[in-house]
Amino acid sequence: MNRHRLNLLWFVATLAAALLLMLVPLPQPLEPFKPYWPALVLLYWSLESAERVGLGLAFTVGLAGDLLDGVLLGEQALRLTALVFIALRFRSRLRFFPMWQQTLAVLALLLNDRILLTVVRVFAGEALPPPSWWLSPFVGAALWPFLFLLFDDLRVRLRIP
Question: Which residues cross the membrane (predicted)?
């Protein structure tokens, strides 16, 4: 398999895995701890390979997530587009932060994502979520260093630029 195909396959496989992990059901007490996987994977690719990730891709992944998850069409598309926009805007700074600062930046981006989701759902007529609903960004930020190092290691082992 040539290098370009392997590169594209790895990229698409990570996005598909993120969408599938989003669908994995958890027991009700653990549901608030479930991280938003598509956001984490798109953040990784935004920082490591900005030429591949754009607002159109974020919107497309968000629409796929909306269709798979059965939520309001465009909800995740809006959230992921805003997240990728901010990540690409500050990419040159975020890439060179130490891991602890990068983790705090990811936490801020994931909290911003939750705020956007709250606004969208309130406008749709739903009630405000419980306080435990705000735990997910903290879990995602805690997983960020491990996810980043895992993807980086696999990318180096597969010799993907």
Answer: 53-73, 94-112, 132-151
